[in-house]
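Incident log, structure service

09:12 report received: a user says their structure output differs between two submissions of the same chain.
09:20 pulled the input from the user's history:
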Amino acid sequence: MPQTVHTFDWPDRLVIGTVGRPGSRTFYLQARAGTRLLSVALEKEQSAALVEKIDELLDELMATEGNRYSVPEEAPPELVDDAGLDDPVEEQFRVGIMGLGWDPSTAQLVIEAVPAQPVDPETLEPVGPEPEEALVVRIPVGAARAFAERTREVVAAGRPLCPRCGEPMDPDGHVCGLPDDLR
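09:34 re-ran on a clean worker, output below:
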């Protein structure tokens, strides 16, 4: 069990944003409550997977017969956050594993993130001590929809895809990955 758990219950702000230019961006999950600010680095794919699971969980709650939770189908406009990351962006840790859950007692989604842990390349078993810290964030359903909407936009704002090969194109040029006979 981590020794330090950074907990944010109903944070003032929870966003995924990036630092750097497309093709070499670093993704951050950032939580702020008052003057307390925490940023953890994560992969683009982790960001995309998290919002996919958030949408699935919220859609499942909406479809549940007798659902007593008021789950919005779309993000409430007043909760959408399009601002950049808060400064300073200082990486607390790099996320290895993320979890998503539902707390019916508070009608909140729970996002958990723990640092990456080194693994033995032969056995793929974790080596070294257990992660010393974790991030736990609890957000209401409307904020979760807004968080997912913003994150989808951040993920999609990367490099444009080549119309021929489908690979991302760098601003400095692109070598198409199609074989010569298909170009």
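09:41 both user submissions now match this output. Likely a transient worker issue. Closing.
09:42 reviewer note: The two ends are 54 Å apart (CA to CA). Strands lie at 4-9, 13-19, 26-33, 36-42, 91-103, 108-115, 133-140.
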